[in-house]
Every structure is written in structure tokens, then in C-alpha cells.
Amino acid sequence: MQAAQAKNLTLAIFHSHREGLREFSIQDDTNEPDLIQLAQNRNGSDTQILSVILMPDGNLIGRLWVSSEEVISLRMIRVIGQKIRLYYPNRGLGVSLPAFQRQALAFGEALNQDLSMLRVGVIGCGGTGSAIAMLLPKMGFRNIALFDKDIVEDTNLNRLHGARQPDADAMSSKVEVVAKSLVELGLGVQVRTYQAWIGEADCRDPLKACDVIFCCTDDHTGRLMLNRFAYYYATPVFDMGLAIEVSQGETPNFQALDGRVTVLVPAPGHACLLCREIINPVDCTR
User: Fold this and answer.
1) Model confidence at 281, in pLDDT bands (50, 70, 90)?
2) Is the Cα torsion angle 173, 176, 179, 183 positive or negative in sign?
3) Under a CB-based contact definition with an 8 Å cutoff, are residues 189 and 180 in contact?
4) Which helix or strand (DSSP H or E) is residue 19 part of?
5) What is the chain's mean pLDDT, rounded?
6) How far apart are CA 89 and CA 256, in angstroms?
């Protein structure tokens, strides 16, 4: 507890039950309130303690003690490494909407339920981000947060999904235009919008609440921030980039049409964007 206080960390207890009990035991319910009271007496009233049970089948369940009288069951536990593993109550027992029945036949009911549980952030709602955002509800994602500070302009209309001329005339925000299109799909998606740059204070808590992030911004500063974020908060970031190379002759010709997806996870073998030389720190200072 002294080390946790010095480093501003949360103490976590992991244990298993030899008899294979798949829930917190009466003994847990008796001992853990005493432990959180001890921790708060020493480290302060805002101290919290995490308790996790390791199941015989490899499953995990957990809860967070806020006080000796208040405990919060964890909505979901994510294990981030070479694979992304999700643990939550009744996983695999959900019933898919009719729109996702074929996906369930191909990949199983658990996939549709997993996607519906994940909170997804889309950074940048331009040509790439708006396309990604439109696909997410059709895959079964139900909770989406959109981040972009820009408005719709005439030059966006040929590539910004969901944008119309009245949106450009009204100088509507990109996030609101894309959000409206997602809701109108009728697939039960909940969308939150943030018309701000992701480095601003208003975006901090919404970003930390995301389970997965799609980075579709085109600036080095934003990518550098998310590059750090992925490792600090153990949040998978799928960074995307598109590049078109055109000749400089009298009649321009396409010389290259390239797309890139880089996965950022805090696991061995996954290099960051700086290591891959995808972003340039010098450009971040301009």
C-alpha cells in the first residue's frame, strides 16, 4: 500500500478458489471490506482496491471496492497482449439482432456479443474516419465515440460519408453529421460526439473510456499522442493511413495508391509508430 500511494497506483488482489467456485465467496465478502477500510485508513478515503478471481476455465471476474460499504462489479475485463481477450458475465449467451444472424452463423454468437460490449473511439471523421464509422454499426458495435474538431466544407462532400450540401452550408460539425448517419441506420447504436482535438481536456475521460480506438487523423501530433496513449492505458489503437502519389507531368497519372493499418498494443513484437518511422516528431512541433 505504501508503494501504491507513492506511485499513485491502485492495489489489486488476484486469487482463485480451490473448490472451483465461480463467484466471490462468503469469505471474500467478509475479508475484503476490512481490507479496503485498512487501505483507506492508511492512504486516504479516495483509495480503491480491485479484486479479481481466476476461474478454473481461464475466465476472470472482478469488482472494485470504493468503500467498505460500496463495491462495483466490473463491466468487462480486457486482457491485452498478442490477442485481445474479453471477460464479462454471460459471455456467449447473448442473442443477436436479426441483422447479425449470418455473422453469428459464420463466427459464433460470442463475436456479436463481444462487439456489442466494446466501446469504440474513432479519431478523425474525414474520408477514412467516416467510412470506418459507418462500417462499425454494421459489424455489431453498439457504443461509438466520435472525435473531430472540424466542420463540413464543400471540399468534403465527395468523400465524407453522410455529408450533404446543407451540412456544408450550415457549417455543421463532422462528428454530428456522421453521428446522425449512424443513428439512422436503425441498428441500436449509441453515439457520443466530441468536437475537439483529442489532446484537449474534454477528450481525456472519453478516450480513457474506450476499449478500442481507430486512429484516422492525418496529423503527426494526434498520432504521437495516441501512440503514447496505447501503451499508457493498454488500449489497442488501429492506426490507418492512405496515400496517393500522382505524377507531376502535364497529364497527371496515379503512380501509387497505398493503404496502411498499424496495430498498437503493449505486447512483444508490436513496434510503435515512432519505431516504424510512420510519424515524424519534428512535424509535431509545427
Assistant:
1) confident
2) negative
3) no
4) none
5) 90
6) 47
CB-based contact 86:78 (threshold 8 Å)? yes
Single-letter residue type at 242: L
58 Rama sector, left if φ>0, alpha if ψ -120 to 50, beta otherwise: left
* Euclidean distance between CA atoms 215 and 227, whole angstroms: 10
Would you tell me the crossing angle of helices 127-139 and 174-183 to the nearest 10 degrees? 20
Report d(CA 84, CA 183) in Å as an integer: 27
44 contacts 61 by C-beta, under 8 angstroms: no
Q: Please, which residues have CB within 8 angstroms of residue 188's CB and are 6 or more apart in sequence?
A: 97, 142
User: Which backbone phi and psi does 259 adopt, to 5 degrees?
Assistant: -125, 150
Residue 232: how many CB atoms within 10 A of its CB? Answer: 10
Is 50 exceeded by the pLDDT of residue 50? yes
pLDDT band at 67 (very low <50, low <70, confident <90, very high): very high
Select from 155, 201, 156, 158 the least CA-distant residue to 175. Answer: 156
Q: Nearest Cα to 213, choosing from 192, 200, 229? A: 229
| Encoded amino acid at 42, one letter | R
244-to-107, 117, 257, 259, 260 alpha-carbon distances in Å: 35, 36, 5, 9, 12
Q: What is the DSSP letter of 1?
A: -
Cell of 273: 509508430
> Are 141 and 118 spatial neighbours (Cβ–Cβ below 8 Å)?
yes
In the numeric block, which cell numbers belong to residue 221? 501530433
Largest CA distance in the chain: 80
Q: Measured at the alpha carbon of residue 224, what is the angle toward residues 220 and 228, in degrees to the nearest 5?
A: 170
